Amino acid sequence: MTEHSKIAPVSGSTIERAGLAFGSSGFAPAPVPDNLRRPITRRPLAAKAPLRQALAQEAAPKSEAIPEPAAPALPVLRIDGQVHPIDRDALAKHGLIIPEAQVSALLEEFRIVKRRVLKAMRKAQENGVGELAQRILVCSPLPEEGKSFCAVNLAIALAAEKDSEVLLVDADFAKPSVLSMLGLPGGDGLMDVLANPSINLEDCVIRTDIAGLSVLSAGNHTNSDSEFLASHRTQQVLDALTRGAPNRVVIFDSPPALAASPAAELANHVGQAIVIARADRTGQSALEDALTLLSACPDIKLLLNAAHFSPSGRRFGAYYGQEG
Fold first, then answer.
1. Adjacent-strand bridge partners of 206
2. CA-CA distance, 88 to 39, in Å (whole number)?
């Protein structure tokens, strides 16, 4: 018969009883160094400072940094320099509007476009947008979609307005094309003014023999175009383009939005953006991505380029004696 005996009660905590049962009494904690390094993220407080004083110091408002004085504004841009003739043969070569020629289908198309642009500009001015409304960005998602073609044609069409003047700015710093399309001489341009404050903005603007049309070239090439556009000086220079000239329209021919970053930077400084979509080339996803990058602009319009089909059967130019 099995012998039964009473189990002596064991005192202590559960952990202590477990140590006795499983023989863990031989274990000891690891040695701890006497001098531990202070955590680098902890701010030491004075050991003798009372707790109330330490809390008061933490709760005290921090002194605000004194902002640096704003740089003086650039003088109002006056366009009254030497007149440079635009090469009409260059206009014809690139398929652009020729001001003195017979009214064409191309001119009629851009007359419609400029009416929308001017209407939006006037409405924005009435709503207090100010000089931002006078700046228009012409862009495309990818290269070879016709953004420079549309920018130059829109500038020529707008220059014909009796109450407006146009400044066409070549902001495609990597691959400028406006001067060659118009047959104008080279020289310092927008990037040079941004990079070197000693360069006079007025000296860089080219006044053309098309009434109401002036051109500001891209300037000398740089690998820091996006960084210069993000600087404070850019705002000063662009303000000078429109200050004191409420009837001046500034058109920026920018790089493709998905190929270079300056387009997204310039979108912060314009009131309208016209995104060129080529009918036989631009994909929907590329167009959507471009619109996202340009979302800083409050008014984005789409312009379909190279479309040869008109469901209404319109034939611009025929009324003036030329088939379109």
1. 215
2. 74
The answer to whether residues 256 and 143 touch, using CB atoms and an 8 Å cutoff, is: yes
Determine the longest span between alpha carbons in the chain, in angstroms: 129
Per the prediction, the chain carries an average pLDDT of 84
Which of 269, 272, 274, 276 shows the shortest CA–CA distance to 298?
272
User: CA 229 from chain center: how many Å?
Assistant: 8
Residues contacting residue 16 through CB under 8 Å, at least 6 positions apart: none
Report DSSP letters for 251-310, one per residue.
EEEPPPTTT-THHHHHGGG-SEEEEEEETTT--HHHHHHHHHHTTTSS-EEEEEES----
DSSP secondary structure, 186-221, as one string: ----HHHHHH-TTS-HHHHEEEESSTTEEEE---S-
SS3 state at 77: coil
Query: Which tens digits make up the pLDDT trace of 78-126?
Result: 898 899 999 999 999 999 999 999 999 999 999 999 999 999 999 999 9
Per residue in 203-229, is it b (16+ CB within 10 Å) or e — as a string? ebbbebebebbbbbbbbeebeebbebb
In angstroms, the CA 300 to CA 279 distance is: 18
Contact 156, 213 (CB under 8 A): yes
pTM for this predicted structure? 0.76
pLDDT in tens, 279-312: 999 999 999 999 999 999 999 999 999 887 666 6
CA angle 88, 256, 218 (to 5 degrees): 55
Query: Which one is the CATH code of 89-320: 1.10.1040.10, 3.10.25.10, 1.10.490.110, 3.40.50.300?
Result: 3.40.50.300
Residue partners of 91: CB distance under 8 A and separation at least 6: 97, 98, 181, 182, 183
Give me Rg for the CA atoms of the chain: 34
Hey, where are the domains in the chain?
89-320
Three-state DSSP at 232 gives helix
